[in-house]
Amino acid sequence: MDINGIDHLRQDAGTMSSSLQENMSYLNKKLDVDKNFDLVYRVIKVGGRDACMYFIDGFCKDELMQKMLQYFMDLKEEEMPKDAHEMSKKCIPYVEVDLQDSWDQIIYFIMSGVFALFIDGFDKCLLIDSRTYPARGVTEPEKDKALRGSKDGFVETIVFNTALIRRRIRSTNLRMEMFHAGNSSQTDIVLCYMDNRVDHEFLEQLKERISKIKVDALTMNQESLAECLYKKKWYNPFPKFKFTERPDTASAQILEGDIVILVDNSPSAMITPTSVFDVVEEADDYYFPPITGTYLRLSRFLIAILTYLLTPTFLLLMQRPEWVPKSFEFIMVKDTTNIPLIWQFLLLELAIDGLRLAAVNTPNMLSTPLSVMAALVLGEFSVNSGWFNSEVMLYMAFVAIANYTQASYELGYAIKFMRIINLILTAIFGIWGYIAAIVIMIVAIVSNKTISGKSYIYPLFPLNLKQLSKRFIRYRLPGARE
Asked: Does the structure show a pLDDT above 80 at 457?
């Protein structure tokens, strides 16, 4: 069989040939370069041989590409290596160089922004990673702030995010493995973990789940990945993952043996496995002295309980006014109740979410005047008009503000859904509905599982007193002097 026949067989098998014309013909048709203006290819001479380079405009560093192009065109024929392996070692003055002959891999790297060089007579493509992505600065995230500590945050570029973690963990045990998911998007996914501390059995399970993901694209980035990784009990609102935009928080979780999942185009990290106690923790707990950190943590737990119990308890006491002690009779509704209390609470629960959505979509220049208008019209006038009672507005205002003490949006909404269930059951069944709603919440938390299949309330169950005390009390760092 002649060489051309062998090359055709390699093309059919999914590997490139040594003929530049056949490679260009296949790639030009596959990439449709005539229609895609940003897919650039250029035919040049490299050491007396015909060559062609492919890259995406906007992903390559212009100055570097100019120097590389000048070097290739100045290469003399007698200096030209015989094969691609020798070419990559001797004649490419750049650090990140790879060789590939699989069309799937070559096209994936080209679409990722890698510079691809094909040379006539070479049966492998030279891939030069000279890409640069449009990116914003690693400034402190708007949501995940801390009073002390570092002021940098994750961005949408995955390489920057891995560098922020590497900067904090300078250990040879730190591993960062890359995977891909999505037939069309080919989204990059990186697993970050400490090889000597991670649960390797869970790690292998996680790798297997990622490799078996069969979706066209991770359109919602991390949320799409989370739904693919955890398909059980989707109706349970309590979060199965912890999300953070802080590199210091992600690094701390890695050092504790957890796995951090980074997804390209997402400025936050997924931490797994995660229990309910992990979700409640914040960075400020550790950036302050132990006694202050303990106070902040306990305050957060207490406020979370109050946001769940406050309005249902008030509704129950208004149904049973004889249960209110004389010293607390001031909490009773004194004005005329035109709308049943249960409907007032439900309407305000919906109105608070409406105001939150409006605040997200309001231009910054209009946020202040619209906030004043909302406070006046929806606050004072809604009470004066008789739609709502002032006591109901007070308690719902506390609940709305107290929700922001939780760093996790998912946990805040889980408590909100359980609070609404409690309000409805209390309004219908009274004290028994109140008790049943609390039981439903406890069952929802206890029956929930982490992505690794372990208890969601560990170290409460199975009981580990030493670890449980650490969840509530901020101890000094190990090794600190007494």
From this structure: yes
In whole angstroms, how far apart are CA 314 and each of 325, 345, 348, 427, 438? 13, 11, 15, 11, 15
Residue 189 confidence (pLDDT) above 80: yes
Buried b (16+ CB within 10 A) or exposed e, 30-65: ebebeeeeebebeeeebbeeebbbbbbeebbeeeee
Candidates 255, 238, 124, 118; CA nearest to 192 is 255
Longest dimension (CA), the chain: 102
Q: How far is CA 186 from CA 9, 181, 209, 254, in A?
A: 27, 5, 16, 26
DSSP state of 234: T
Which tens digit of pLDDT belongs to each residue from 444-454? Answer: 999 999 998 88
- The token pair at 458 is 């560990």
Cβ neighbours, 10 Å, residue 18: 21
Q: Both tokens of residue 331? A: 């909490």
Q: How far apart are CA 347 and CA 341, in angstroms?
A: 10
CA–CA distance, 9 with 90 (Å, rounded to integer): 30
- Based on the number of CB atoms within 10 Å of its own CB, is 457 exposed (0-12), middle (13-18) or buried (19 or more)? middle
Residue 138 and residue 158 in contact, taking contact as beta carbons nearer than 8 Å: no
What is the pTM for the complete model shown? Answer: 0.87
Question: Which residues lie below 8 Å from residue 17, measured CB to CB, with a gap of 6+?
Answer: 6, 7, 8, 10, 11, 23, 123
Q: What's the number of CA atoms in the CB half-sphere (13 Å) around residue 42? A: 14
The first and second tokens of residue 111, run together, are 């679409």
| DSSP tag of 477 | P
Helix, strand, coil % (nearest 5) of the chain?
A: 50, 15, 35
| CA 319/CA 261 separation, integer angstroms | 48
**3-state SS assignment for residue 460:** coil
List Cα–Cα distances, 124 to 100, 121, 257, 386, 464, in angstroms.
5, 9, 40, 78, 57
Token pair 């059919």 is found at 12
Q: Is 55 helix (H, G, I), strand (E, B) or coil?
A: strand
Distance (Å) of CA 2 to CA 5, 50, 121, 435: 5, 21, 15, 83
Looking at 320-451, list the stretches that DSSP marks H as alpha helix, in order from N- to C-terminal side.
341-361, 364-374, 382-384, 390-402, 409-429, 431-447
What's the whole-number mean pLDDT along residues 100-124?
93
Q: In this structure, what token pair is assigned to residue 81?
A: 């290596």
Q: Are 99 and 127 in contact (CB under 8 A)?
A: yes
